[in-house]
Amino acid sequence: MATQTRYPSSYAQYGSEKQWTNPENACATGDSAYATGTVKDTTTSFTNNLYYNWGFTIPAGSTINSVTLEARCYSSTLSSYFSVAAYQNGTLRGSTARELVSAGSWTIVDNASTGTWSVTELNSNTLAGGLSFLIIGEGNNNTNRSVYCDYVRVTVDYTEAAGTDVEITATVANTATAGNAPSVKANSKVTAPTCSTTTAAPTPDIKCSIGIRGPPANTALAFVAPGISSTGSASVSAPAASSTEAFNVPAISTTSEQAVAATPADTTTSA
Question: Domains, the chain, ranges and CATH?
Answer without folding.
Answer: 2-159 (2.60.120)
